[in-house]
Specification:
By secondary structure, this protein is an alpha/beta fold. The protein has a single domain, classed as Alpha-Beta Barrel (TIM Barrel), CATH 3.20.20.70. The chain is built from 13 helices and 8 strands. The chain has an 8-stranded parallel barrel with strand order 1-2-3-4-5-6-7-8, surrounded by 5 helices.
Length: 291
C-alpha cells in the first residue's frame, strides 16, 4: 500500500437543515470539491466529521459514502476510535472491508486505562486487521498523552502502527517525534506550514475543508522548498487557521467553508453555531481570501 503523505482533509459530515440527518448528496458534493482541489487523502468520521455526534450505524454509513465516492481518486483514512477495544475492532474491520489505507485510532478516552492498557488497545486492534494504524495524539480530548517514548515503543513493537497524528500543538514534541523517525501528520491547523518544514509527512488539516486548493498548494510549496511563495500563501491563510484553532473548532470550519462557497451547513446539536461577533471576526480573518 502506498505511503501516506501530504494534505489529509478530515471531511465534514453534512446534515440536512430540516431533521438533521446525514445529507448524502451534499456530502458527495463537498467531496467533489476536495477531489477537484486534488486533496490526496480524505478521512471519514474524524473529529471534524463530528464522529462523536454520530450513531454507530451513521458512522458506518458515512464511511461507506466517502469510501465509494472517492475510490481511486484519493486515499482513505477511517477514524475507528471507540472507548471499548471490541467496538474499535468492529469499526476497523468495516473500514478494512472498504479498502481504507489507514485507521485513525485514539487511545481509549474518558477515564481511560493506564499506559499498559493503552498499549493493549492498540495491540489488539492491530492483531484484528492488516490495515496500517495512525495513532491519534490529542490529550486535551482523550486525556492521554502519547509521548515520544511511548509512541516509539508502540510503533517499534507493533508493525501496524505506522503513523502519528499529533494534535498537541507542541512544536518541540513534533520535532522530537520527527527526530525519532516517526511519520507524523501535523494536527494543529496554525502549525501546518512549520510542521512540514520540520519534517512532518503530512497535514491532518480540518480547515482544508474550507480552503482545499490553498492547503494542497501550501504543502507542495513547502515540500519543494519554494519558501518565498509558501511564505506569501501562508500569510494569506494563516489568519483563518488561527481563528479556527482558537474558537469552537467544528462550527468555525463549517462557517469558514460556507463563507467561501462550500455547503457545509451547521454542526449537529447541541453544538452551537458561532455568535454574530464570532462570525464577524471570522470574516475579518478570511478577508485576504474574500477580497
Amino acid at each position: 500500500m502506498a505511503e501516506l503523505r501530504g494534505v489529509c482533509t478530515p471531511v465534514c459530515t453534512v446534515f440536512t437543515e430540516d431533521d438533521g440527518t446525514v445529507d448524502d448528496t451534499a456530502l458527495r458534493k463537498h467531496l467533489d470539491s476536495l477531489l477537484e482541489a486534488q486533496v490526496p487523502i480524505i478521512t471519514a468520521c474524524g473529529g471534524t466529521g463530528e464522529f462523536s455526534f454520530l450513531r454507530p450505524e451513521e458512522r458506518r454509513h458515512v464511511t461507506e459514502v466517502v469510501a465509494h465516492h472517492i475510490e481511486g481518486h484519493a486515499q482513505l483514512i477511517v477514524h475507528a476510535s471507540a472507548v471499548m477495544t471490541e467496538e474499535a475492532i468492529e469499526y476497523a474491520r468495516h473500514a478494512e472491508s472498504l479498502g481504507a489505507a489507514a485507521l485513525l485510532l485514539l487511545p481509549p478516552y474518558f477515564e481511560g486505562p493506564n499506559m499498559a492498557g493503552v498499549y493493549e488497545h492498540y495491540a489488539r486492534v492491530a492483531a484484528a486487521v492488516a490495515t496500517p494504524i495512525m495513532a491519534y495524539n490529542i490529550p486535551v480530548h482523550s486525556g492521554i498523552y502519547l509521548d515520544p517514548d511511548f509512541y516509539t515503543s508502540l510503533s517499534s513493537e507493533i508493525d501496524s502502527v505506522q503513523y502519528l497524528k499529533d494534535s498537541t500543538g507542541d512544536f518541540l514534541a513534533l520535532q522530537a517525534f520527527v527526530r525519532r523517525g516517526a511519520k507524523v501528520f501535523v494536527g494543529c491547523d496554525p502549525m501546518m506550514y512549520h510542521g512540514v518544514l520540520a519534517g512532518a509527512a503530512g497535514c491532518f488539516w480540518g480547515t482544508s475543508n474550507a480552503i482545499p486548493a490553498d492547503a494542497v498548494e501550501l504543502y507542495r510549496l513547502a515540500a519543494a522548498g519554494e519558501l518565498d511563495a509558501a511564505n506569501a500563501l501562508w500569510g494569506r491563510i494563516y489568519p483563518v487557521n488561527q481563528f479556527v484553532w482558537s474558537h469552537p473548532f467544528n462550527p468555525s470550519v463549517k462557517a469558514a467553508g460556507r463563507m467561501l462557497g462550500h455547503d457545509l451547513r451547521e454542526c449537529r446539536r447541541p453544538v452551537q453555531p458561532l455568535t454574530e461577533d464570532e462570525l464577524a471576526a471570522l470574516r475579518e480573518a478570511l478577508r485576504p481570501l474574500l477580497d
